[in-house]
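Note on ligand handling. Small-molecule inputs were canonicalized before submission; formal charges were left as drawn, and no protonation-state enumeration was performed. Where a ligand contained multiple stereocentres, the stereochemistry in the source SMILES was retained. For adenosine-5'-triphosphate, this procedure yielded the string shown in the input block below.
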Amino acid sequence: MTANSTLPLDVEGGNISGHDGYQRDKTFAPMGMRIIFKDLDYSVPSHHKRGERAFLLKKVAGYFDAHQMAALMGPSGSGKTTLLDVLAGRKNAGVTEGTIAFAGQKPTPQFLRRYTGYVEQFDTLLGILTVYEMLMYTAELKRPISEPLASKKQAVEDLLEKLTLTRCRDVKIGNVLSKGISGGQAKRTNIGIALITNPRVLFLDEPTSGLDSFTSNEVMTMVKSLAAGGVTICATIHSPTSYCFSLFDSLIMLVKGRVVYFGPRGHSAIEFAQSGCPHPKEYVPGYNDAEYLVDLVTEADIAGESDKMADFYASSQLFLDNAACIDQYLSESSDVLPANIQKELAVRSATVTPWWWGLKTLVKYRTSKNYRDGEFLGPRIGDKLLISLLIMTLYLGIGDELRESNYINIGAVLFMWCTLPAFGAASYVPALVLERNLFTRERNDGLYLVVTYLLSKMVDELLLTALASVGISAYVFYGIQLQGEWVAFWLVYYITLCNGIVLAYFVAAISPNLDIANALLPTYVVTLLFFGGFLFRFHEMPKWWKWYSYIDFLRYSWGSLMANQFGENDPEWLGTTVLSYYSLGSVNKWRYMGFLSLFFIVFFLLAWITMQFKKYQSR
Ligand SMILES: Nc1ncnc2c1ncn2[C@@H]1O[C@H](COP(=O)(O)OP(=O)(O)OP(=O)(O)O)[C@@H](O)[C@H]1O
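Structure output:
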């Protein structure tokens, strides 16, 4: 293969002056950059033999040019996705050795996140949005904030047209339970997400999997048109239709992590593979080229002869020509790159837009939709409504009955009032756990920072909770005829609810799956009950457990509520007063609310740190 580029390093920048992609869109200038890789090894601790490393890629070398579409093919498990992930910087485990150069330079993870597009094999979309909204949401997060909204809208409309998605523009994406757009439309929407910034490089993992042949051809024709526009395209592909395969320019075939062919697609590839295969099968009419090639290498792989094919390639003239080409490309200086591309390659921040813009956008698209979604609102308001009605009707009017036999009832209702938000936290866990794939993909795509995502989730919940808690706490407070201030009663309830939510997020963040989170959260909350001060008086707790009551946020919720109820008029009871009986004599309700708020900050920080550093996907 030879390069036929006119610009150095096969980079084309057109007449772009900005590095943010905005002007690039306006001019529709061609883009793209050559990707070179040489002596690429990728290894992980072996599953088969303890203490050994498994090399999933071995001395892999090649290059992909701008304006061209390269296919990564091979039998299942040959390392196609591994190579794609290594090149796209999506690996977060294992050791990569060798050279990777984008336009002659080693790419930074930030460059890869911001300026390359990656289409995952499985769709990760937001079911509550329509196709148009999904693309606009991504555009607002990934295109520069300096770009006017009208220009972003235009870019999305253009993309919808290019992807032939105009017909389902306003159809909800949906999910498994409530079907929305079709599989082909979902795939094209996913491609649209990767294209929203007009990336110079597009990686696609099995873009046609699960699609019928007509839709596959349609999708790949569209992808090919991008290559014609200058984008460098690299796709893993399993069993393409003849037409799909004919769209590719070059082909890299892997078996057991080794290259058995790298060169142009076409008859020369078949001839080469036949020569390299120890027992080539006949190319009978009816075979499609891709199918035949994959069959050939798969059979060699099954017969344990794949190394022979790889050795054949490594000793071929084709290999020498490719190696010479790679060395020549690598020796070309990258100083001659256009300034905008130099800037892109040197970018250091992982996101295009600042955190506050990300937060605004997430609230604009996600919160506003969630607040109109019964599935979202139901579990968040329904349980509070039911339980508060039960409490209110059960304890109706007892709050101002200051007789000895009633003090225990008042203590109990206040205790239940603050334990419920802690137990209710369970309904907030799925929001984080079930969305993990989407979060990981959007984070890898450089859409937002972890803190932005977490803050947007807090806004989602805290706004709704604030509104709901005002109404609920009002009818409970006045229905039971509790003493003290309603504002304090509501505030304690609200802060405890907030603690429950952020605690749920922390538990969701540390749990590998929903089952573990669902077991962990109630277990922890039950331990809090014992140390809240109502079931066991503080001064009677054994010395070796007392410390736990200080880090039990229910202690501060209940203490504050009791001080609100009995602070002004602490009645005599069992030879002392009610507050002294429960070791709450010196409690200041506002100070306790302050302590309560500290737990919110601590749980938030714990959730943030965990999500920042925990690898949810090992790939
Ligand atoms: N820790 C490990 N130890 C040994 N082998 C491993 C380990 N992790 C992954 N592998 C193997 O590495 C290979 C690479 O997988 P990869 O997903 O890249 O293949 P693929 O060609 O994309 O396959 P498919 O077409 O089925 O998606 C697989 O054969 C897998 O079994």
